[in-house]
Amino acid sequence: MTGATLSERRTRSRGGLIGLAIVALAGIVLPFASAGQPFLLMLASHALIAAILALSLDMLTGNTGLLSFGHAAWFGFGSYVAGLLSKSASSDIVVLSLLTLAATVLVAGVIGAVLVRQIGKTFAILTLALSQIMFAIVFVFSDITGGEDGLQGIPMATFLGMQIVSPTTWYAILLVALLLALAGALHLRRSPLGRAWLAIRENGERARFIGMNVNKLKLMSYVISAGLASLAGVLFVLFNGATSPDLLHWLESGKVLMYVVLGGVGTIFGPVIGAVVFTLAEHYVSTFTDAWLIYFGALFVLIVIVAPGGLFGGAARIAERLSARKSGRRTAQ
Amino acid sequence: MLALSLVLNGIVLGSVLLLFSLGLTLIYGVGRIVNFAHGALFSAGAMAGVWLVASGVPFGLALVVAPVGVGLIGVLIDWAILARIRDRPMVDSLLLTFGLALLITGILYELGGRNVQIMPIPQVLGGVISMGGISLPAYRIFVSILAVALTVALILFLKNSKWGLRVRAANDDPEMGACIGIDRERLMHSVVGVSAALAAASGVAAAPIFTAHAVVGDKILILAFMTVILGGLGSLRGAVVAAYVVGLILVFGEGYFGGQLALMLLFIMVMAMLINWPRGFFGEGRTE
Questions:
Q1: Interface ipTM
Q2: Model pTM?
Q3: Given CB 3.0 to 4.6 Å as the disulfide criterion, which of A126, B168, B193, B263 pairs with B75?
């Protein structure tokens, strides 16, 4: 029995490593494939940021089952905090990331402490409200944040005193950030903490009965998720050189949710794939039609009805069924 | 003087909010669905109303036709889309209505919702009524009376009709209701239809004040969510009290601090209340 679980765990960790290797390989090949097409590299960079953002939401929804309809709040929060800090304090990408992370952990810790005590539906409603409030705050302090026009003129980011100029360097930084985040997410999933989260996702009541501090665990998940989203915001504002209230709009939250739902909630790699596919699709669809929100909404509805496990989840289910049939045949023989 | 005029305006906003949140509470009570698309239906009602009035339909008729039309769309949505996920986990219903909100907003954008459309105030209801140094546009008084009248009518209908009896039974215990022969599908169709019609009615009635465009319902949806949380999710009398509390907080906040800050204030107050009273004013909010 123990042997079975051990080997199962080993194959699963191998699956994670293979996944990481595939993402790294695909990421490294792309700049060569897109040589001479600077726009494609920029689109890919934005897709990488979207992938980190998607992963951050999956750290919450995939682990504890809590749905956030306002995850853009933390993405936008990170981008504004980092943008304002880079104008006043330092332009070093590492310093900015650490300072923004500290600010996010503090704020998300306080807000999250109230949020995670609510039932799932109230949690969902309040997260949507939170993103609207963050949106409103930008306009309350519009003399600092630039209001409607957004925060412009972010100084060029530096790393150990060197300026980060070339798009290829940026792409490499974003790819490394995504790989680190993926490795972290995979590690957490296999750690005792990750197991405890999954227990809450499957049945919060039982998790409480066997002595877990459910609210504390949920809060940890929320803060980690918010922190990673704010880091995506830091990378966005430094890469883009500006940020705007659009980042905090509920449409942006809807997109993040779409990445995760499209890819498959809780599959870690699924949301990353979902984010990349969706970012590319959004770009190409919006070149030939104005009404992409209709397509977006219709696809959203369709996926929830037809494929609740998402693309990745659906593929995994088919693979599972195939392998089950194969092993079934083997035992029959 | 300012305070008294703010109180009056708070009551006007509270009444609109009440009519709007009622649909949200109703659909939650029977279907256990939090409808993120409710705000989009408000916008749909407002835009339909403006379009009807602009093409020559009298305001009074538009106030009936637009809600009926949107209500039928609501029935269609329930029959074609919401019915597909009846027995799925709660998460799916949240995602589905959120997707619907995106879809409806997208369609409204294509139907001219990118531009702000003005609804003229009907001539009979124009003018300003002043009393003791306080003045309030007559139309705002009309909106408040209309919203309160519709709310009272709905509550009476819920208490005294067969349909109301079924709704209340399904609200208290859906499984038991199904056991004694309530057709859950048909009941849900009618509830979503009525809920959509209420959203549209508040949209048309408020259009001369809030104007009409594709995302006019966004802000009122957030206010309504704050209302149902303050009152306790699924509690009818909680929603009635909370609607006026939210209306007053918002109008006073706007009067003294400005609109965006008022929204922030409201959110902080709701969060603070949830720490101690997570189930709303009357402790009737559901915990499932």
A1: 0.89
A2: 0.89
A3: B193
